[in-house]
Design a protein that fits this description.
Blueprint lengths: L2 H13 L12 H9 L9 E4 L5 H9 L6 E5 L2 H10 L4 E4 L5 H7 L7 E4 L8 H15 L4 E6 L8 H6 L2 E9 L6 E8 L7 H29 L6
Parallel strand pairs: 1-2, 1-4, 2-3, 4-5
Antiparallel strand pairs: 5-7, 6-7
């Protein structure tokens, strides 16, 4: 991880922690997980919200997103300048992501296939969350995919609030090696995916218990191999 980027982001976070969502740039594992949650085969542009110093941007490009198909919205002028310099082939827009439709319309963009967000959703009020998601799904249409990471164990937008908008949350991946550990979520229209809410909750529950169960099995194998009697 770039030490200079850490210093830049940490300084900006200290000045305004509600405006800057992350204390440090996303780790490589988290950035890769967000990029891998995309459907790269689908045509269309990808919108990245809150580009920061470019950790997720770099992962998206490495995953196969063409620079011309990547649109980045960043509201901090300093970070916007860094992104513009580092990714000259991408379209980097200075502005507030809650005005995504207006910003993209001014840039001649009327639709995208997916949104990848590093915004601090937990720090947003419910109306602001809803305004952001509605604008993004207006740009994407019913087959859209909104990818969001958070440092909490649960979806950063409550299921009831999502359901009122006709959306659902699906846990994509837990990144234990990130500092702090993070989770990646996929928001989609309820009618888009073939899995039900019950199936989604079931997968989420299995995921929560999977790591402890692996540790228990590993401990049991170690005890067995060492000749320790097991019940």
């Amino acid at each position: 991880m770039n030490v200079r980027d850490e210093r830049v982001l940490f300084t900006k976070w200290l000045r305004d922690p509600l405006r800057i969502g992350a204390v440090m740039p996303s780790g490589a594992a988290l950035a890769r997980a967000m990029a891998s949650a995309l459907d790269l085969a689908a045509p269309g542009a990808v919108l990245e919200l809150g580009g920061g110093t470019g950790a997720v941007t770099r992962a998206l490009l490495r995953a196969g997103v063409a620079p011309r198909d990547l649109v980045i919205v960043e509201r901090d002028e300093g970070l916007h300048g860094i992104l513009t310099q580092r990714f000259p082939g991408c379209r980097v827009i200075l502005g507030d992501a809650t005005r995504a439709k207006e910003l993209l319309a001014a840039a001649g963009i009327d639709s995208v296939k997916a949104v990848v967000s590093s915004l601090p959703l937990l720090a947003m009020s419910p109306p602001t969350q809803q305004r952001l998601l509605r604008q993004c799904f207006d740009l994407m249409g019913p087959d859209g995919l909104f990818i969001q990471f958070t440092y909490g164990p649960a979806s950063p937008v409550p299921e009831r609030r999502l359901a009122r908008m006709g959306l659902r949350a699906e846990l994509a991946e837990r990144i234990w090696l990130n500092m702090p550990p993070a989770t990646v979520w996929r928001f989609t229209h309820l009618r888009r995916a073939g899995t039900s809410e019950r199936a989604t909750r079931s997968r989420r529950a299995r995921d929560i218990w999977r790591a402890p169960l692996r540790l228990m099995r590993r401990a049991a194998r170690s005890a067995r191999d060492s000749g320790f009697p097991l019940p």
